Amino acid sequence: MKRFYVMLMVVLFVMGVVFGISLDNVLAKDSRPVPQRYYKSIQIEEGDSLWSLAEEYRDSQMPAAEYVKELRSMNGLTSDTIHWGQYLTVLYFQ
Domain 37-93 belongs to what architecture? Predict the structure, then answer.
């Protein structure tokens, strides 16, 4: 009978450890959904800048400077200068 209780305690302990590790792994994962990236072409209007486009289209988790860098890269720009009437591809999130 004593052996039964010892085995029961060992089994319960092992199950507790396994359950605890599993629960820890579940809780450690980021539960926020990853925003989907989408692209579209826009025509630059008077007064637009890469920084104003960043404020309009970027996800709140992405810093504006990173978004502007991404815009320059996607559109083959070597500076932040854009012109009225120009078309750019912008990244937006949903």
Answer: Roll (3.10)
